[in-house]
Amino acid sequence: MTLKNISNPTYYDLNNEINIPVNGQIPLHKDQEALEAFLKENVAPNMYHFDSLRERFDYLLQHDYIEVDFFNKYDFSFIEKLYDYLNQQNFHFKSFMAAYKFYAQYALKTDDGDYYLENFADRAAMNALYFADGDEKLAMNLADEIIHQRYQPATPSFLNAGRKRRGELVSCFLIQTTDDMNTIGRTINSALQLSRIGGGVGINLSNLRGAGDPIKHIDGAASGVVPVMKLLEDSFSYSNQLGQRQGAGVVYLSVFHPDIVDFLSAKKENADEKIRLKTLSLGVTVPDKFYELAKANEDMYLFSPYDVEREYGEPFSYIDITKEYDNMVANKNIRKKKMPARELETEIGKLQQESGYPYIINIDLANRANPIDGKIVMSNLCSEILQVQTPSTVDNRQEYTQLGRDISCNLGSTNIMNLMNSPHFGQSVETMVRALTFVTDASDIDVVPSIQNGNKLAHTIGLGAMGLHSFLAKNHIYYGSTTSTDFTSVYFMLLNYWTLKASNEIAKERHTTFYNFEKSDYASGKYFDKYITKDWGPQSEEVKTLFKDIFIPSKEDWNALKSAVMKDGLYHQNRLAVAPNGSISYINDTTASLHPIINRVEERQEKKIGKIYYPAPYLSNDTMPYYMSAYDMDMRKVINVYAAAQEHVDQGMSLTLFMRSTIPAGLYEWKNGRTDKMTTRDLSILRNYAYRKGIKSIYYVRTFTDDQDEVGSNQCESCVI
User: Fold this and answer.
1) Which top EC class is given (predicted)?
2) Catalytic residue among 15, 204, 380, 410
3) What pLDDT does 1 receive?
4) Contact, 233 vs 277, CB < 8 A?
5) Which of 172, 476, 551, 611 has its CA 20 to 30 A from that of 263?
């Protein structure tokens, strides 16, 4: 922090004392002392003070700190009323880390960096006023949700709302390329532009011809996907928002692409510098057929995308490989090469051990569960976005001859602990949906027309959740127990129900549905079949008690919702996605996403500052037994929890696997009599288990090594909510 009035701060030392046990106990009170010292020594002397709210807004407007358009949509008397309400809530951060993160990364500061211009209530007000777009009732409801931390907008939205000089409100982007030089060039330009305005970029390369495939009209052969990957990595490194952040991207490739081995090899530590990828993330799309061939220990064929597109008349990504595999093997017009399926499975495991990559997208699972007309072909930088796309084609002037549909991610998150205490769960969720709807409506990424087109037609959002482990621990529920999966299923069933209700209401109000709604399983009613044939309410008495004051929709309620949706439609093509939560979960004083914690007292390395310690929320002698580290937990328990949520989430979730390089004894029965070192076999078993449980995507594999290092730590700063 570059602030004017800081001298001899004590808060770092006080915070560091948390890591020094006293009589065998964690001195948690030191965190509160550090918080008090931070507010007194750092925030109070460096807060820019105004004599009135009117003076504050006049100053912010006059000096171009905030936009004037959203401000002019309200009478100032209403803004005063909203501020009165926020101030009455008497908001306080609960930990040093929460306050430190907010003021270091989110609070508006003077241009010279000497003073803070807002506190948390001010930022909540900016978000409420901006996203309500002049609707006073919605602004009050949003202020209520944000100040009580039931709703947390994604980092780009929360940070930039209302600011005059800002980045985009959206979190990340997904684009794809088709098999020609013009589209490749347009894709590289798109990567530059999207990285410039903020957010991570996912790019599908599966449609590109493999190395050695012919190039039309030229007596030569294609170089394959790796050189394109290098061009993209250089593009992200260059387009880094004037050095403020590292450009971030991920490339996806089908596991049946002929360049798959070279694709994976480019991320290895010992790869030749000409092909080695240092910062670009890798993801693999995996159809059912791969699991089938690996299980049978058979060879697998890798197919030429160039030939497949000529034979089938559409790009490689859009072919159902599981369905067409045998036909493609038999087709002599399609060049192919073979390798043992288990050999490739081992290569995937080796790279996951070494780097945490590749992400795994179980593409057939995603498409089977997809209620939307079209095909999902890839994911994003954090693997939770799964939406249909259509390809674009570009002419020699780099103009679109066919404008496809690509994706921008509009994200937000519920705080499970606080939403469970909401006076009206459904109204809270509707308010969140309306805030996210503003983000998708306001987004207009014209520098990449396929993104602009996709967003305009789909109106997609992605509401998720954070704080599952802290909620379970506070309520004395072990993570991974049947009680925990029961709770998770009911919670996400409710998110699904209320986001559907909200989307239906917005469709009715606007007389507008998402593109091709009439071709969806929502329009036919098929989507609702599982909810009107089975009771999805709490199964255990413990979970029934947790939801005793919360409305649980019956089969009849679901049937009524089905009729309403079939009649008036939905505004949003997609509604739910669970992103990984980074710094924003600290501000919410809760645990990240749906993951178990890593440490009861987490150690964070902050730039220029050093180490900061963060005790798990609600940590006490009472809750300590329920706070087992993810690294000491059977990952099948984590998969089971995510599978319970996935049942109700129309997109995906950023599921990370946490492994130790030396596996604790007794954790996995298949290790009995074998080495206690983590092997590719362990990862293969877990990937297959996740696939069988219906998990659509696996994000990082994070490994805690014997020398206390972490491999595969989360580097995504755009979708971390």
Assistant:
1) oxidoreductase
2) 380
3) 54
4) yes
5) 172
